[in-house]
Design a protein that fits this description.
CATH class: Alpha Beta
Radius of gyration: 17 Å
Oligomer: single chain
Number of strands: 7
Shape: globular
Strand content: 15-25%
Structural class: alpha/beta
Strand order of the largest sheet: 3-2-1-4-5-6-7
Amino acid sequence: MAKTVIVTGSSSGIGRDIARAFVARGDNVVLNGRDGNKLADVAAGLGVPDRVVAVAGDIGALTTGTALVRAAVERFGGVDVLVNNAGIFGAKPFVDVTEQDLDSYLNGNLKGTYFTTQAVVRRLREQARGGTIVNIGTVLINHALAGLPASAALVSKGGVHALTTSLAAELAADGIRVNAVAPGIIRTPLFGDGDEDASGELALLNRIGEVSETTAAVLYLADATFTTGHIFPVDGGFLSGRAA
């Protein structure tokens, strides 16, 4: 039976591939991103207009999560899965981080995840048939890099990890499972012009990951009916050791 899946930040990178995978297996997908034109292109590229709806909006705004749920209900009759992928990441020395910088990460990563999840959970409780939430974190919460000063981004993503375990406990009685995927270094547009492959030596598998490998973990957690409160590293062994 087809599920209805909301994927935030699905106009590029990891989120776009997650949306592609859910559509490919026959599910309905609600796309989200800040750029409406880009999002429309992604929706058109998926080639199944009857199973995809795009909702543009900044995930840090309280109204966006409500709009996503409304679109899912009006178009597909409900919601089953939320993938909180939208977020931002960047490096900046701790003492140079401004209030604006910190607010940007907290709004885009933590607040967006928090209130979108809140909107979805309200609907899941109304439906009374359970559901699943998959957050996107990062393994850098557990193993930081001296050469990558990213305290502002990591504080917000650390909050996402804490939210995952807290909600897993709070929502278990509702049949709502909450897990997170914690990617290592993945080839995405976040790298810009950087040489991401040079970072592959940091992991036991001696390479960086591809978005499809993160997607595989999301699909697993979406279907793993006896798994909740789990932070699933997809990092090529980055947390476990070093290739050299």
